[in-house]
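User: Let's play a game. I give you a shape written as tokens, and you guess the letters that built it. Ready? Here's round one.
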């Protein structure tokens, strides 16, 4: 019994930490350690010293001059009003950093009275005073920016130099514009850096980049047309006064501008095609090769000899003075129909000496007359009527005109090829070309991007 009593007494006086397992931490070890320890005793006059220290700091801060400070046992009580909401947190942060402060009771409120709101004008006055002191530096920065921009403008104005360096006047103007823009932007950047507005400069450049992307999407057709103008001025796909077909538009080229290609149609009308469309289009140029072939179709009777008709056609085309002998004229069988044989007649002319439409017209008339004189009949449509035996047709004597005698075919009147040649003039029609040259002479030459000295691609 004595041993049991001694064991119980030992357990009662032994601390709980001593009997816990070694692997299990004590309850106090799991608690977070405080950021600042609190002294058990406080020195005499410590509260007054803390209060005076905080008041002295607040007196140096205009926004916190009206804050009241009371300290008791290291607990700081703040009260009063401040002009801005952010000053409330700033006052609490300043008071909490003073040595000896246990905690801060913040009862500061924002001053929402009319007089308090007008007190914020002091900051505006301070900013205005700073701006007045900065005015001389701003004037110097503006002068530097203007001087840089003027220097760039003078360099870009050396048009003779850029035209010698560039391939054409359009590219020279593009280089000059890029130089002007670069010097202007450089002057603005240097001026902003002189007045210490680096943040503003970054914001301006960032905003300009976003605006540039938006404008690029909104004006992609205009930009594409501008780039196409540059490419056309470099590639030179045609010359002035060339007879071209661009997609479905036909005419003679008046000029190539920075926005569009101007044509004069064969009717004498002006046709303006955007350069973006011209750059993507299929261009047919009739002027590049002076030799041009014409062709036409004529039919003979199915019972006629096509070989003989071909020989007559070749001889007739070769006898025309405007048809070239090299390449020689040719006649081909195009199609054999139910009642005729279609022949295709081909001949070459020199467009510098003969007009294509007039030459083709004369050739058709000459070949037709030659075939008729040689006894070839130009067939007419033949229709065959079939009566169904199940029907009851009228007697032959009741059919109107059945007894009339069959009319003989009247011989067609032909005109010899020599008479036709004497009456018609096949000289090239240069009326449109003359009007184009007159209009080009009336306009300044620097508006035209076509360069006669460069090769045509």
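Assistant: Ready! My guess for every position:
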């Amino acid at each position: 019994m004595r041993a049991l009593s001694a064991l119980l007494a030992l357990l009662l006086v032994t601390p709980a930490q001593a009997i816990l397992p070694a692997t299990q931490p004590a309850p106090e070890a799991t608690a977070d350690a405080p950021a600042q320890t609190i002294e058990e005793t406080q020195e005499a006059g410590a509260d007054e010293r803390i209060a005076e220290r905080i008041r002295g700091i607040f007196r140096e801060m205009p926004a916190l001059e009206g804050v009241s400070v009371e300290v008791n046992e290291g607990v700081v009580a703040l009260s009063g009003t401040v002009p801005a909401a952010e000053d409330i947190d700033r006052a609490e942060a300043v008071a909490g950093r003073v040595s000896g402060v246990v905690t801060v009771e913040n009862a500061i409120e924002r001053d929402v009275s009319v007089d308090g709101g007008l007190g914020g004008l002091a900051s505006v006055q301070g900013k205005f005073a700073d701006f007045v002191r900065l005015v001389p530096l701003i004037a110097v920065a503006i002068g530097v920016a203007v001087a840089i921009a003027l220097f760039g403008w003078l360099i870009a104005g050396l048009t003779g130099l850029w035209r010698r360096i560039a391939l054409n006047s359009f590219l020279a103007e593009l280089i000059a514009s890029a130089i002007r823009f670069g010097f202007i932007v450089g002057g603005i950047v240097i001026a902003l850096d002189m007045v210490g507005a680096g943040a503003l400069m970054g914001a301006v450049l960032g905003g300009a980049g976003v605006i540039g992307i938006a404008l690029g999407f909104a004006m992609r057709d205009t930009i594409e047309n501008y780039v196409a103008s540059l490419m056309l001025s470099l590639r030179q796909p045609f010359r002035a006064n060339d007879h071209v077909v661009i997609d479905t538009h036909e005419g003679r080229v008046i000029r190539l501008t920075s926005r569009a290609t101007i044509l004069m149609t064969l009717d004498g009308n002006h046709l303006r095609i955007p350069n973006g469309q011209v750059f993507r289009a299929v261009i047919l140029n009739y002027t590049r090769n002076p030799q041009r072939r014409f062709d036409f179709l004529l039919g003979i009777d199915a019972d006629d000899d096509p070989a003989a008709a071909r020989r007559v056609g070749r001889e007739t085309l070769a006898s025309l003075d405007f048809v070239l002998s090299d390449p020689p004229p040719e006649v081909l069988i195009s199609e054999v129909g139910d009642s005729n044989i279609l022949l295709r007649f081909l001949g070459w002319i020199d467009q510098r000496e003969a007009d294509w439409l007039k030459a083709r017209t004369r050739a058709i008339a000459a070949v037709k007359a030659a075939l008729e004189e040689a006894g070839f009949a130009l067939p007419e449509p033949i229709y065959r009527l079939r009566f169904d035996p199940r029907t009851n047709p009228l007697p032959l004597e009741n059919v109107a005109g059945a007894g009339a005698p069959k009319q003989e075919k009247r011989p067609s009147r032909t005109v010899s090829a020599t008479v036709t040649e004497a009456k018609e003039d096949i000289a090239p029609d240069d009326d449109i070309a003359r009007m184009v040259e007159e209009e080009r002479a009336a306009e300044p030459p620097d508006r035209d991007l076509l360069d006669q000295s460069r090769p045509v691609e």
